[in-house]
Amino acid sequence: MTTTATEHLLRADGVTVRFGGLTALDDVGLQVAPGSVVGLIGPNGAGKTTLFNVLSGVLRPTAGTITWKGAPPPGRRTHHLARTGIARTFQGLNLFSMMTVLDNVVAGADRLATGGPFSLITGLGRHHRDERELRARAMAALERFGVAEYAHRMPGTLPYGLQKQVALARACVSEPELLLLDEPASGLSGEQIGALADQIRGFSRDMAVVLVEHHMDLVMEVCDHIVVLNFGRVISTGTPQEVQADPQVTEAYLGTPADTSGDVNGAAR
Ligand SMILES: Nc1ncnc2c1ncn2[C@@H]1O[C@H](COP(=O)(O)OP(=O)(O)OP(=O)(O)O)[C@@H](O)[C@H]1O
């Protein structure tokens, strides 16, 4: 997708992150256009999680800027970003184990509420109408992700694949414009990853997606644009075909100069 600077939802410019003497990210740039799926890949230790944490507001960069629709995001914490229109999933799912599946998803809907997340979860406070509406939205999200029948179960009692669907429902219930997915394929079977690919393509009808993922087949199948990091620097960007054909990418993954096929499929699993 070709875009101008003003069309980008999220943009990172010159992002540098240092941990003591270690430079985890060095002058990294990235743009996410509306409705696009952007993959963030690279060998272990390349800086993907660090960049994801910067994009999601968990980590403030040592240098560089993040802009959301051309302006600085209003706050750095996850709930600030949710209110902006950014939602994320976590590698470790981060579901609340003492809350039902439904309440977990209601908690993700707080950007749509006027009474705040606490009133939604507890039912206390002024906004009972909000609560009813958002419970209905949360149920609709659970239905969309095929887990409505588990609404009143505790998440820990569900198989991992279903918990992942609950986490996706929680992220999507706020109707974000950008969804940040942190290794969504980890722990899933081949069949589940195939279904996830269809879901991610479906998401891009409503929202942009940034995907950090080691599963190369998934990345190559769903992404419009890929950014490849190595040792904290962007070494390649482009379409899946372009980065697969880039000798620098093959070299980064395999540690040897590229052969003519330049195929990185499977190299990082
Ligand atoms: N909190 C931290 N303190 C010190 N060093 C860190 C910290 N977080 C990450 N690093 C270092 O920064 C570099 C980039 O790490 P990061 O986790 O972002 O890589 P990654 O591409 O996500 O790797 P992986 O694929 O293994 O998850 C690594 O050298 C890592 O050891």
Automatic annotation (TrEMBL):
GO terms for cellular component: plasma membrane. GO terms for molecular function: ATP binding; ATP hydrolysis activity. It comes from the Bacteria. Coiled coil: none annotated. Pfam families: ABC_tran, BCA_ABC_TP_C. It comes from Nocardiopsis sinuspersici. Gene3D superfamilies: P-loop containing nucleotide triphosphate hydrolases (3.40.50.300). Residues 10-256 form the ABC transporter domain. Keywords: ATP-binding, Nucleotide-binding, Transport. This is ABC transporter ATP-binding protein. Signal peptide: none annotated. CDD domains: ABC_Mj1267_LivG_branched. InterPro entries: AAA+_ATPase (IPR003593), ABC_AA/LPS_Transport (IPR051120), ABC_transporter-like_ATP-bd (IPR003439), BCA_ABC_TP_C (IPR032823), P-loop_NTPase (IPR027417).
